Amino acid sequence: DWTMGAYREEAIRLIREQVGDQKVICGLSGGVDSSVAAVLIHEAIGDQLTCVFVDHGLLREGEAEQVVTMFRDHYNMPLIHAQEQDLFLDALEGVSDPEVKRKTIGKLFIDVFQKHASEVGGATFLAQGTLYPDVIESVSFSGGPSVTIKSHHNVGGLPEKMGLKLVEPLRELFKDEVRALGRELGLPDSFIGRHPFPGPGLAIRCPGEITREKLAILRRADAVFIDQIRKHGLYDEIWQAFVALLPVRTVGVMGDGRTYDYACAMRAVTSVDGMTADYYPFSHEFLGETATRIINEVRGINRVTYDVTSKPPGTIEWE
Ligand code: XMP
């Protein structure tokens, strides 16, 4: 794509001009935006960039390994893998209110990011994968009355708190343009086409109180569901798909025995921007096959449901 080729060159020139010989830190989430921003900035200034990847223990199966392998081993970027699972999970113990969960995670995230970023020493810039719609949204939110349905976990206020200037090379781009730029930079399609994943991660897909046991069960079920979606060639037709582990045990039969295990809900939606969404119309064969696989392969789940709520009135996530 010639447009993106030109954009890439110009963006690199601007990053070099802005940063000079200073150091930059970048929070890497594994999502498309921060990944593209990191690769672009790394191309511009090389090892003056260090990425910080916070593992809050609420990631999906294999996710941390994928991110570390990709950026540290494939792109040779200086990367701090902040393994703070215990800190987050201990703080979340006994917490069941969705907003308290988000705030607990958001606050710790900032503390942990700040702590690890300070290991870099002498950084003067913070890189963020802010997109054009984010810029617009924050302006209109601050301008008028707004109803906050869910407090999004982000790093708002972090640059001021850390005394850092911002580098935001994607500020003029829409999502599809970021994807095109990512392809131009050689990021694999498996990264570029990834479904969005919320900052609080699996915490908001585990309604009620979170435990390590529940998270382990949820991770396995989610992996089976996504595997099924990929095997049936449906991944790219879906905006987001995941399993939510319900805080309820139900009775089942397995062989000659009675089981008493968790129920889960599969969720898959189509959407353009996440603001509205329709549930994905899977075939009954697909639903039945996937339910059977989850029950057979995931110890701890004996009942599978499919969430057919659209947004509105539902939200995409369960919390
Ligand atoms: P809802 O559930 O509000 O989600 O329909 C809309 C989109 O936003 C994502 N989401 C979040 N992302 N922090 C995030 O970074 C959050 O707290 C959060 N809550 C929801 C959700 O995954 C979907 O893409």
UniProtKB/TrEMBL annotation:
<protein>
    <recommendedName>
        <fullName>GMP synthase [glutamine-hydrolyzing]</fullName>
        <ecNumber>6.3.5.2</ecNumber>
    </recommendedName>
</protein>
<dbReference type="GO" id="GO:0005829">
    <property type="term" value="C:cytosol"/>
</dbReference>
<keyword id="KW-0547">Nucleotide-binding</keyword>
<feature type="domain" description="GMPS ATP-PPase">
    <location>
        <begin position="2"/>
        <end position="194"/>
    </location>
</feature>
<comment type="subunit">
    <text>Homodimer.</text>
</comment>
<dbReference type="GO" id="GO:0003921">
    <property type="term" value="F:GMP synthase activity"/>
</dbReference>
<feature type="binding site">
    <location>
        <begin position="29"/>
        <end position="35"/>
    </location>
    <ligand>
        <name>ATP</name>
    </ligand>
</feature>
<keyword id="KW-0658">Purine biosynthesis</keyword>
<keyword id="KW-0436">Ligase</keyword>
<keyword id="KW-0332">GMP biosynthesis</keyword>
<keyword id="KW-0315">Glutamine amidotransferase</keyword>
<comment type="function">
    <text>Catalyzes the synthesis of GMP from XMP.</text>
</comment>
<keyword id="KW-0067">ATP-binding</keyword>
<comment type="pathway">
    <text>Purine metabolism; GMP biosynthesis; GMP from XMP (L-Gln route): step 1/1.</text>
</comment>
<dbReference type="GO" id="GO:0005524">
    <property type="term" value="F:ATP binding"/>
</dbReference>
